[in-house]
Amino acid sequence: MVSRFEQKVPRKRRAGIETLMAATLFLVLLLQVGLRIHMAGLGYEVAAVQNDLLDYDAELRQLRADYASLHRAERLKEVAQRHGLQSIGEGQIRYVGSRGKSL
Fold first, then answer.
1. Is the full-model pTM beyond 0.85?
2. Helix, strand, coil abundance in the chain, percent, nearest 5
3. 95 part of a folded domain
């Protein structure tokens, strides 16, 4: 049985149309493969950025813990005593100029 398409279109022209359709299908498939490869690359980049973010978050937590440890009042007093520093006593602070007046 012969389809209507085959009856109305000459054989040479039909071969050209089939070739054009095959080439178009090939280009569409090639474009799809290229886009999937590009999307996979972007996925790897996103994963790398997420890993970097997790690393930076862990480093920030560590730095905050170090900061809290270094700024403990007991530790600061100990370091000050090791270096011969003492608490401020009466009369050690003096004001220069008249109080209450703006310069």
1. no
2. 75, 0, 25
3. no
**Distance between CA atoms of residues 101 and 17, nearest Å:** 96
> Which tokens in the block code for residue 44?
């790897």
DSSP string, 25-62: HHHHHHHHHHHHHHHHHHHHHHHHHHHHHHHHHHHHHH
Question: pLDDT tens across 32-87, in order?
Answer: 999 999 999 999 999 999 999 999 999 999 999 999 999 998 998 899 989 998 88
Tell me, what's the pLDDT at 7?
Answer: 65
The confidence score (pLDDT) of residue 100 equals 58
- The boundaries of the domain holding residue 71 are 4-81
Burial string for 47-63 (b: 16+ CB within 10 Å, else e) reads eeeeeeeeeeeeeeeee
Radius of gyration of the chain (CA): 40
Number of domains in the chain: 1
